[in-house]
UniProtKB/TrEMBL annotation:
GO molecular function: 2-dehydro-3-deoxygluconokinase activity
The family this protein is said to belong to: Belongs to the carbohydrate kinase PfkB family.
Annotated organism of origin: Streptomonospora salina
Protein name according to UniProt: 2-dehydro-3-deoxygluconokinase
One Pfam family it belongs to: PfkB
Keyword check for Kinase: yes
Length: 334
């Protein structure tokens, strides 16, 4: 049996006004699912890897929509609990010409009541890798304890995407706590800009200096590229040129591509390239998710000589994003 990557964290029902109208005036909204960890699981499944999502939803229709949506993308949802006493979190996007604002209704949600006991759920015990993000410790003290429990379990290989969401943290708390937790992870993914905002580090090397003992650190720098630090080795892969339609979800897609590269036994350059290719698909769409590239499309690109990588990857066709209409990203991750 192939051991899955198990992604642990909250996914909310996402309300999206039809036609990108402001929430106040939109006559119709679509309901779908949004969550950092389930986004990673869906992209991994799309790439053909065993992926599971472990979380909790309320015993309400939103919870059923969320679970069904993730399951339809090929993810094992057998570790998702239903909490009859709490609601599923909600997340609404309010589009405006000046940028989209997001509204969270997740305080007291079923997932925010998750705690360390879920670490013994079956899919986690069977995991090849457990993936979680910095959203989880921000949700509640019990979720913070869950994150720490996973990150300190020596039997698990844990990947941690820092995913700083300032709005979810008490002022001043995020920088300290996210650094403590990141130091416990086997794999850490962080944006250069978010590291700068949190910790004042200007360069990837400065981030490495803060996290010297993390087995594998990846610092993403949007259109510039991504750098992997593993032991004393460092690898950098420039980002392909992408006409960005909407950036939200690219970080999650990158994480999935990068982890998939590891599962496929690719070297550092291959891992970072697959991360970029998956991120590029999401950047070209309005959704948080995009169908990952199909093997026949990227096999050659992954092996392109260094000087031809950017050119060949930039020339890949845009994603066909069937089923994702009605979701689009937002610049409002604060
Ligand atoms: N403008 C861009 N052009 C090309 N690739 C981009 C661009 N912005 C983001 N990416 C891709 O998305 C990945 C994640 O973006 P980044 O902004 O660094 O992280 P996050 O979304 O987590 O804040 C990058 O590593 C890169 O592959
Ligand atoms: O769970 C939350 O609080 C979220 O914010 C869900 C977000 O839609 C994704 O996690 C996108 O995040 P990026 O891939 O970093 O752009």
């Amino acid at each position: 049996m192939t051991r899955p990557v198990v992604c642990v964290g909250e996914t909310m029902a996402l309300l999206v006004p039809a036609g990108a109208l402001p929430l106040e005036t939109a006559p119709h909204m679509s309901v779908t699912a949004a969550g950092a960890e389930s986004n990673v699981a869906c992209t991994l499944a799309g790439l053909g890897h065993a992926a599971a999502w472990v979380s909790a939803v309320g015993g309400d229709p939103f919870g059923r929509v969320v679970t069904r949506t993730v399951a339809e993308r090929g993810v094992d949802v057998s570790g998702v609990r239903t909490d009859p006493d709490r609601p599923t979190g909600l997340f609404a996007k309010d589009p405006a010409p000046t940028g989209t604002t997001v509204h969270y209704y997740r305080s007291g949600s079923a997932a925010s009541a998750l705690g360390p006991d879920i670490a013994d759920a079956l899919p986690i015990r069977e995991a090849a890798t457990v993936h979680l993000s910095g959203v989880t410790p921000a949700l509640s003290p019990t979720c913070d304890a869950l994150a720490e429990r996973l990150l300190t379990d020596r039997r698990l290989t844990v990947s941690f995407d820092v995913n700083h969401r300032a709005r979810l943290w008490e002022p001043g708390r995020a920088a300290v706590r996210l650094l403590e937790l990141a130091r416990l992870a086997d794999v850490v993914l962080v944006g250069r800009d978010e590291a700068e905002e949190l910790w004042g580090t200007a360069t990837a090397s400065e981030v490495r200096a803060l996290l010297p003992d993390v087995g594998c650190l990846v610092v993403k720098d949007a259109e510039h590229g991504a750098t992997e630090f593993r032991g004393h080795r460092r690898a950098h892969v420039p980002s392909p040129a992408v006409e960005v339609v909407e950036p939200v979800g690219a970080g999650d897609a990158f994480a999935a591509g990068y982890l998939a590269g590891g599962l496929r036994g690719l070297d550092a350059v291959g891992r970072l390239r697959l991360g970029h290719l998956c991120a590029g698909r999401v950047l070209r769409t309005v959704g948080d998710l995009a169908a990952p590239p199909r093997a026949g499309q990227w096999d050659g690109v992954l092996e392109a000589p260094h000087e031809r990588w950017v050119e060949q990857a930039s020339a890949l066709p845009a994603a066909a994003c069937e089923g994702e209409e009605g979701t689009w990203g937002t610049d409002g991750k604060v």
